[in-house]
Amino acid sequence: MPYRVLTIFFAVLPLVAATLLDLMVFLKRESYGPRDRPLLVVDGNLGATLLTRNGEVRSQIPVRPASLESIPSYLPRALLFQEDQAFFQHRGYHLREMFLALYGFVFKGRRLRGASTITQQLARTLFLSREKTARRKLLEVRVARILERRLSKDQILELYLNHVYWGKNQYGLGAAVFTYYRKPPLLLTEEESAYLVSILPNPDICAKHLICTTPRLHKRQERILKYLATPAE
């Protein structure tokens, strides 16, 4: 019984922490307090600006042209298969994955690993740093919740594709596809799409070569291609 109670406690801990962080935003008057609370403004072209309450621009994201209609359907399938299989079901975060990451961090001394959804990764890419701290993780969840309330799933996916880092100093799918394959995203093959998705966990894995492979990268790519060979639901 004590073990079960402890498991339930740590399962809900990330949600409680995120809720407390929301409360702190309203009660504390620090650098991330009420008067400096970020407001996300999104236009119809998938551009976005993060403003403070006094109108100061904190972060501005350039508009990129890629849309879900301008890329092969198997590219987002491959991306969601590898990075976030429950993307269309969750509200921006996975409690179970966050619990496992937090448990390893607190009780086993492990580094605070990812456990991030597509929405959390987008929040980090657009508005946060990549530091491995519990505070940054909580901010990541908070911003992800804002994104999920303000945007549709398709908009989140498009913003992610257009702003994620793909290696070779390239941000956004259009720039990455041109750098790696000298073609527009619409002409990507399944193999090329699987390769691009497979490098996302470590975009600079092939820093010395334009296209390369490692045992881990090859295994990841083969797993993606095997999934793409199954009929889409």
Q: What is the CATH class?
A: Mainly Alpha
Mean pLDDT: 75
Please estimate the helix content: 40-55%
How many runs of DSSP E, i.e. beta strands? 3
Structural class from helices and strands?
mainly alpha
Low-confidence stretches: 19-53, 58-64
Architecture, according to CATH?
Orthogonal Bundle
How many domains, as an integer? 1
CATH fold category name = Penicillin binding protein transpeptidase fold
Query: How many helices in DSSP terms?
Result: 9
Question: First CA to last CA: what distance?
Answer: 40 Å
Kindly estimate the percentage of residues that lie in beta strands according to DSSP: 5-15%
Say which CATH homologous superfamily is assigned. Answer: Biosynthetic peptidoglycan transglycosylase-like
Strand order of the largest sheet: 1-2-3
Q: How would you sum up the global shape?
A: globular
Radius of gyration: 19 Å
Main β sheet profile:
3 strands, antiparallel
Order of helices and strands: HEEEHHHHHHHH
